[in-house]
Design brief:
By secondary structure, this protein is of the alpha/beta class. The chain has helices spanning 23-26, 31-38, 42-47, 88-99, 107-112, 161-164, 185-198, 243-253, 267-278, 292-296, 299-306, and strands at 50-54, 60-63, 66-70, 76-77, 114-116, 122-132, 135-148, 165-166, 171-172, 175-179, 210-214, 235-239, 258-261, 282-288, 312-317, 324-330, 335-336, 342-343. The chain has two domains: 23-148, Beta-Lactamase (2-Layer Sandwich); 161-343, P-loop containing nucleotide triphosphate hydrolases (Rossmann fold, 3-Layer(aba) Sandwich). Strands 10, 11, 12, 13, 14, 15, 16, 17 and 18 form a nine-stranded mixed sheet that branches. The protein has a seven-stranded antiparallel sheet with strand order 4-3-2-1-7-6-5. It has a two-stranded antiparallel sheet with strand order 8-9. It is globular, with a radius of gyration of 21 Å.
Length: 350
């Protein structure tokens, strides 16, 4: 949304309107901040993608095309000097709620800089990083928290699926999805996994066995190993697993027909991807890049392109808004398969 309506002092929620924010999110917020959030109109609450707490600085709410602050009464303000400022006590109370009073039980999650909560939402953490032997051990003196609200949208992959299906050979093309940050590729990938796993009646597709390596717990939103989101009935998930290791584990043990990974680009990914392709398994992956030229500037990805690993390139952007399908390229011949950009969905999220 390009603009956001925030001032509705007489707002009264309708009985049948959608619940704005899940209890999983509200329950980890300190009582005073939860009150501020719940005072916002429901349409505004529904648009929120991130709630950012930075000690000593204004409480910030982010949505798809901007952010806003509120004062101590929950009224949106533009002047940071009048905004509600996050206290050290706010941070302490939220950590208490987030970790159920046992932050040391979450040392492994702290190494990654985030904690996944029930519902699949993630909370990023910043503070003093403790490093031992060149690797991150934990984060101490936490002074920043970012609640990333997971939005599960169905149907955003509908315009793309026809480009990915090799009907003659009854398989999925090896596909790379690229976009700059926050253009919807993870949301798209999640819906692709769900649809290909369940089957797509309109394309006369039966469901595929999907092996999903969810290194950052963003696609399936696993909580204690269990996916919190609908990722299809034939999808097996390795949560918080390094991509290269996960691809090999799935290939050896789960007999997938399609392996899906998010944000490839490391050297170790290249060898694992080669094993997947040579093993007769289709691959769907994503990477950060704005266009084909950007891809070629990344050494590991250039190797994959030079080896003709991928058959389809899906390019996302923002020309028509968040979640614009800018281009579909047949990499086997270099032809563009899309005549003009398509907005996958007007109200994007995730």
């Amino acid at each position: 949304m390009s603009q956001i309506r925030i001032v509705h002092s007489d707002f009264i929620p309708e009985k049948d309107c959608q619940i704005p924010l899940s209890e999983e999110v509200l329950n980890i917020l300190p009582a005073n901040i939860r009150t501020l959030v719940e005072s916002l109109p429901q349409d505004v609450q529904l648009s929120i993608e991130e709630i950012r707490l930075r000690e000593g600085r204004p409480l910030m709410f982010c949505y798809d095309s901007g952010d806003f602050m509120v004062n101590s009464q929950g009224v949106p303000v533009k002047d940071s000097s009048t905004a509600y400022r996050v206290s050290s006590e706010d941070i302490r109370r939220m950590l208490h709620l987030l970790t159920k009073s046992s932050i040391y039980a979450l040392e492994e999650e702290l190494k990654n800089g985030f904690i996944t909560i029930s519902g699949g939402h993630r909370v990023g953490l910043t503070g003093r990083v403790v490093v031992e032997g060149g690797t991150v051990k934990t984060i101490r003196h936490i002074a920043g928290l970012n609640v990333r609200i997971l939005k599960d949208l169905h149907g955003v992959a509908d315009p793309i699926i026809p480009f990915l299906v090799d009907k003659k050979n009854k398989r999925i093309y090896d596909t790379l999805i690229i976009s700059p940050p926050q253009c919807g590729k993870t949301t798209l990938l999640r819906d692709l996994v769900r649809q290909l796993s369940n089957g797509v009646t309109s394309q006369k597709l039966s469901g595929y066995k999907i092996g999903l390596v969810d290194e950052r717990s963003e696609i399936a939103g696993c909580y204690e190993g269990v996916p919190q989101l609908d990722i299809g009935v034939r999808t097996d998930v390795l949560d918080a697993c390094p991509k290269a290791s996960g691809m090999m584990m799935l290939l050896r043990s789960m007999s997938p027909q399609v392996i899906v990974v998010d944000e490839i680009g490391r050297e170790e990914d290249v060898a694992a991807i080669g094993e997947v392709i040579n093993g007769g398994v289709s691959l769907i992956a994503t990477a950060h890049a704005s266009n084909f030229e950007d891809l070629q500037k990344r050494p590991s990805l250039k190797i994959l392109l030079d080896q003709n690993v991928f058959e389809r390139l899906i390019v996302l952007g923002r020309s028509l808004g968040v979640g614009t399908l800018e281009e579909v390229i047949d990499l086997t011949c270099g032809n563009s398969l899309l005549s003009h950009p398509v907005l996958l969905r007007k109200k994007w999220g995730g």
